[in-house]
Amino acid sequence: MSAGSVRRTWLHGGLTIGRIRHVRESACMHLVQTATTQIHTIHTSSSRAAAFKMPTTNELAKKLKALHVPSKPLILPNIWDTASLYTLLSLNSAEAQPVKAVATASFAIAAARNLKDEDLSLEQNLETVRLIAPICAQAEIPLTTDLQDGYGDQIASVVTAAVQAGASGANIEDSIPSAGFGNGISGSLYDKDEQVKRLKIALQAASDADCPDFVLNARCDVFKLDETPGLTNNIRMAEAIDRGKAYLQAGATTVFYWAGGVRGLRTAEVERLVKELDGRVAVLLWRSSVGHSTEELAKIGVARISIGPSLYLFAMDSVKTAALRILQGGSIMA
């Protein structure tokens, strides 16, 4: 090959200058096309994000309220952190949405901090709400929170803070945390008329915070009270019905009854409450082999079923069981 030919077709690693130029131009064109595609993808994603309008807290409250239908109850899984929330949300897909709303469980939030339920501070409770509420809103899933008794005289500011954090509803109980459950109706529960006033204050606070459709699940703890002289089942039931009707009249969406972890509510009790309150009854799914199933409770006619801290307890029990098996020489899988 002549020197001129070498200059015209300079070889470098087996490639001529013309071939190198062709490869370089092709690579540049590929980069341009890739960049154009990426920009289009980003633009499309941004357009979709711009098109998505985050639902307001009150819009989610309306959605939550509409899910309370007697005999077609809303089943509420209770969460305690973002991990438990994401786990539940993973059950939903374009084809099915079994998780229609979620609730917090103060017992589980406290236990995750190695605290007793009654020792969970307001700020610790609200901190969890602030973490999970935006995720719920993004998924267009209503969130209802466990606000215990409304933290006494702070009830208005507590509900305001919960709504501002993104909660569309709340449980507010009629038992006095500092009194315990061993002092009977007059010693362990707020006076009925006082509790009615407190519930109205809570609803007004929610409305003032731009959530007039706030879903109040008024918890009545009369069945949870310890056995004391004169406190018969008939007296408990009469008190439960009287308070339930008053709470509904005050604006509650449902009245939540439970009997603690010892026995749960009996079938006849749930049936009577459903009859007297026109189905606007919420109950706790009792963690027992003899407890009601969600299907059974739906047939009785309740409007709402809470799982309570059971998912947390199941999760921690699974961690403990698996860890012990592994530490004792076992494998990951049982």
TrEMBL record:
Which CDD domains does this chain map to?
Answer: ICL_PEPM
Q: What is this protein called?
A: Carboxyphosphonoenolpyruvate phosphonomutase-like protein
GO terms for molecular function, please?
A: catalytic activity
Q: Which InterPro entries match?
A: ICL/PEPM (IPR039556), Pyrv/PenolPyrv_kinase-like_dom (IPR015813), Pyrv_kinase-like_dom_sf (IPR040442)
Gene3D superfamilies for this protein? Phosphoenolpyruvate-binding domains
